Amino acid sequence: MLKLQVSKQLASFSFQFNQDITCQGVTAILGVSGSGKSTLINLINGLIRPDEGNITLNDIILVDTTKKIFIPPEKRLIGTVFQDALLFPHYKVIKNLTYGTKNKLPAKFDEIVDVLNIRPLLNRYPAMLSGGEKQRVAIGRALLTNPKLLLMDEPLSALDMPRKKELLCYIDSLVDELKIPIIYVTHNINEVKRIADNVAILDQGKLYDYGKTDQILQSDYLKQWL
């Protein structure tokens, strides 16, 4: 369980989020551009500090402003995949995947490489990869840190439709085969329909609604999206 009760004053609005999120399957964070989706992700992974509040993951306190607790990002056991794959251009894929592991292959290396179908890419440089291949490598790198939770911040936004459909299938595999819970940020309702078990709608920095996907897709707020 991910428990969030946080607030952060931003230039354009005051961000507030108070909700428990089940760490199972895929939870989509849905909203228009500027609604606070990336802010929420960066509060969870520790790239942004809340002004007030607390964050707990599986009963481990990550942030508590009252107690002055702040676990740094690298110690949160949370993986993040951004819109840009952010691969090191001068390293081959295998080095990108194992960067920081002291040249030792992580225990789940073979399993993750096979689930994401990136074994044929291991000796290529990022410049030789398609956009979808780069994102699969970025997902693999995040998973090889052995996270308890995977955050995905609009990972398909730069891809064409065939690559989007392909990568959505791989995301399904992560949940089914690796049992990794995912928080998935998007403004694309079709992606939500395709992979999400639960949905949180953000509007101007506030939680508008949260619940099972089928229920949330009936929301009046989303009628103009359908």
Describe what this molecule looks like in 3D.
- The protein has 226 residues and is α/β, with parallel strands linked by helices.
- The chain has one domain (2-225): 3-Layer(aba) Sandwich (Rossmann fold), CATH 3.40.50.300.
- The chain has helices at 37-45, 93-98, 109-115, 131-143, 161-178, 189-195, 213-216; strands at 2-9, 14-21, 26-30, 52-57, 60-64, 69-70, 78-81, 149-153, 182-186, 198-203, 206-212.
- The strands form 2 sheets. It has a 6-stranded mixed β-sheet, sandwiched between helices. Strands 2-1-4-5-6 form a 5-stranded antiparallel β-sheet, covered by helices on one side.
- Helix 4 (131-143) runs parallel beside helix 5 (161-178).
- The longest helix has 18 residues, at 161-178.
- The mean pLDDT is 90.
